[in-house]
D-amino-acid oxidase (Brevundimonas variabilis), 411 residues
Amino acid sequence: MPGAILNHRRAVLAGLGGFLGQGALSACTTSARPGLAPRPAFTARRIAPILMAPERIIRITVCTRPFRAPGPRLDVERVGETLVVHNYGHGGSGWSLSWGSSGIAARKAMALSGENGSPEIAVIGCGALGLTSALQLQRLGARVVIYARERTPFTRSMRATGTWTPDSRIADADKVDPDFPALWERMSRESFATHQTYLGTQGDPVVFQDRYILARANPGPQAAQKAEDKPGPPEIRFAEYGERLHDIVPRSVAIPVEQTPFPGIASARFGSGLQFNITELAHRLMTEFQMGGGRIETREFHAPTEIASLDEKVVINCTGYGARALWHDRTMTPVRGQIAWLAPQPEVDYSLFYAGVAVIPRPDGIVVQNTRGGDMVGYGSEDETPDRAEAEATISRVAPLFPSVRPPLPA
Ligand SMILES: Cc1cc2nc3c(=O)[nH]c(=O)nc-3n(C[C@H](O)[C@H](O)[C@H](O)COP(=O)(O)OP(=O)(O)OC[C@H]3O[C@@H](n4cnc5c(N)ncnc54)[C@H](O)[C@@H]3O)c2cc1C
């Protein structure tokens, strides 16, 4: 029986794409330190109910994760006289890995510019990777111009959940170079540290948030359904490296179900997760970039040769899924993801995972996201059309946790 529970937990966490990291599975209920009494990692507290009803939907967003089987592209390519440092293909981990990946790209670009002082370097793209590349370059002393077709708040990055998920659909474990796991770890550690420099700053662009991972008492036949039950592309062995960060990422602990307010659950875990309030974070990054003398120009490129015609001869390419068309990169696969947004409830200060659904409150709305079926869901689909029926079905799976929220009276 314990094995069954563990397997269930693994399935739950797989659906979240590293929501709390593998460390969550091995954590114990207290943290023991030599010479100190073990301290509890949880105290029960009153929490506000979430108004989990389709009537509360304010928008439904869809975007494609830029998945590359070998992992993000970070090599250097010469196009005519121009040196292009690639920085794209971060799957479901673009925000999480942004600072670390962009730090690597920026240091390469500075070295290639060959100039002491203040070289002028271009960044293509204004999503998570473009903005952090531009800032990393400025912090190294460069003058930076961003060229992008879309800018904040209209990039795909703005449609992300905003959780710390550094190995969510980051690569195919069977297609990566042997040194990729170590590179991933370096990116993750630099990112985790840099994101935390925004903690406690105005507008709370980055926060740590309480999280409950709940298992249903009666999962029912549907809950056990896996992606492989349905026809589709062959299963990918998505890389999982969470264990490499066990020393820095908070772990979840098992807690007594009766110390939670949620009815009908068989087991519960509690933890703390890094959360990006993306609307505020992207706005902050744009402002910092412009205050640092950065310039943004709206521009669409149709071929690499157009990039070679720019005045800047060192360029960081952060075009995300756009690189598939621009660079004819066929290793790039879209992975569709949808979020239903409920009207914000500022009093809700915790997220939860239950019945294959992630629920995450943000100042700009409450994320309700289906994770049932695992990481293959949406694989190969670049359809960005919102699916209202899916949104409502996802909300209805979590609604039983909040029985005090009454359905509306008939009209
Ligand atoms: C539903 C969903 C939830 C997600 N949740 C998370 C999460 O919780 N945590 C996390 O870390 N990641 C998450 N992700 C993944 C994350 O959103 C992506 O990895 C990230 O947004 C990629 O950023 P990017 O800057 O590479 O691409 P984009 O945001 O797509 O930016 C690309 C930029 O390049 C420009 N561009 C593209 N082509 C051209 C061209 N030809 N000419 C000029 N400009 C061009 C675009 O206009 C844009 O400015 C999620 C993704 C989805 C779909």
Q: What stands out?
A: The mean pLDDT is 89.
